[in-house]
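Team,

Forwarding the record for the chain on the shared tracking sheet. I've put the sequence and predicted structure together so nobody has to dig through attachments.
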Amino acid sequence: MHDLISRLIVRLPLSFRVLYHQFLLRVVDLDALSIEADIPRFLGQFAGVLIMFSAIQAIAAFISTWSAATPEVHQALAWQAEQRLIATTILVAGLVAVASWDSTFPDRRDAMVLSPLPIKPRVILVAKIAASATTIGLAVLALNVFSGLAWPLVLGMPNTGVTGVLRFLAAYWFSIASGSAFIFGVVLTVQGFSALLLPRRIFLQLSALLQIAAFALLLYVYFFEPSLDTPASMAQRSTHWIQATSPVFWFFALLNQLNGSLPHAQLWLAERAWVALLAAFLCSGISLLLCYLRTMRQTIEEPDLVSAARGIHWSPILGSSLRTAIAFFTLRTLMRSRQHRLAFAFYPAVALALLPLFLNQAPLPGTEELMPLELIAIPYMVMSFTIVGLRKVFALPVSLNANWVLRTTQIFPMRCYVAGTRFSLLLIAALPSWMLSAFLALRFRPLFPVAFHLAILALLGFILVELSLIGFYKVPFTCSYLPGKANFQLTFWASLIIFLPLVVGAAMIEQHALANASQSIAIIIAMLGISFTLWKLNRYRAASAELFFEESQEEPITSLRLSMPPSQSSS
């Protein structure tokens, strides 16, 4: 088999093989990696996370067979599992497609380097599609490597034995592959027609908003879409619009149609899956082809930065001029840079991925009259991960060549730069999380626990900001970056193993303290003391610190143990 694949690869054109290899390495930004720009190792660890989820799902498949006592329970279990697995696969494929938002379409580097070469645009197009599809395919394969075998075995064996298992297996893998291809085609279609219909400068401005909106939409649909596990629930008129608009139910129906277990009333959903898959292929293909034929020249001719429009410009004054400059520089960097948006979005995504652990949970005995635990724990997680994520991406530089501008204009003391960075963290990371918590918590009565909770949450945000500023003596996005410091995968596992129990414990302590005014006041006073201490510490250390723009890696000193011990040298 290996020799056959090698012979097939050798038969491909050399230009395609070279471009495919280069585009595959560029699917992930080198500067965003956390393992010394080692892309295979990075992708291996990313696949390891997905394989772990697949193993957990496989274990759950065999455990769940014990609870399937009746055919009705078995059918409900099967439908729940199928919808969950398809929804998770579509989510992962969509997130990977959104993460590689600009990798499938020609950028300025492609146009400048590849246009003068004797390479046909269709070769570039096919190589880029193959590279992006390979990344999504590896993610889908890793996510279903164990669960894609365990669930067909569990759900297919009780019905028709080995034949049912094989048919279920084929139907399952075809359905998840179709769902992944559909969401990939939708992302390409949205981006392609946006690039075609809009001038390039306007498209570059809206591209960041489209990417963030797609990211948020995928997460929202995944976490808040209901599960319909019985024919009666799917036949209800109130759920008809959910089924008609959700690709999860389309490809769920496609799976059961291929498996031979779809009720006749849901055949229209399977037909919608076939139509959606064909439309995604056609629309994405047309948009990609037109982009490569019409927009590569525009990529060279039109600048990436939009010139300032004439007229009166007004920007709010956010304190001192330096504080305002750092805050606007941070906001505009996040809006313009795909690399920084993706690195920053990873952390809130981890927090959102943990939300189902708190949603729709019954209150613990004795806490029915207290503030719900999810109103306390969810803002804790969202605010903490948002602050940590923004602080992490501060270390990723925007343009090293432009840092000389900031070096020559360093006319303020170091404490002013620290104050500007603190304000940016509070404004961009802490304040939106606090406002969202206030919006959700104000529906709870009485209001005095809500006031105490919002005060505690505000102090928590300030403490986290001050902790993240310890040792940070630079302007955001301006210091050279040493790979190996982001540790995205370490953040993920630490959130599951360490941070989640701490959040639950702190939320339970606050939940009981909010019922007692004296305990709430004591917590607020203690947090005020911690906040003031950290603020004074950062201010004191900033007085003697220097602003720096270069991170130098410490040279390891390796001893060869050639020197003689003192006892032997004296003798």
